[in-house]
Amino acid sequence: MDGPAVVAAHAALQAVLKRWDHPSMRQSCTTSPRSLEVIVGSQDGWYFVRVNRRVDKCPGYANFTALEFDWFELYAVSPEGKLERYPYFP
Hints:
This protein is an alpha+beta fold and 90 residues long. The protein has one helix and four strands; from the N terminus they run αββββ. The longest helix has 17 residues, at 3-19.
């Protein structure tokens, strides 16, 4: 993965964690970076970042555990580095 892709992934991950910034959410693995998976793609200089919630990565949760159906957030990062969230609300 090239440097700009890493920066795009980090920016999207930080945006998700900022949205989750509530005292009750800081205590749980299911709302921590440990439960998130980041997928990055690129096209024409743009990076597209999908952040998936994977509670099966948390201790005590079985592989088949699902708290919601296909939770994800999608972001686009322009060639200038501007982060935009896709208007999808899980």
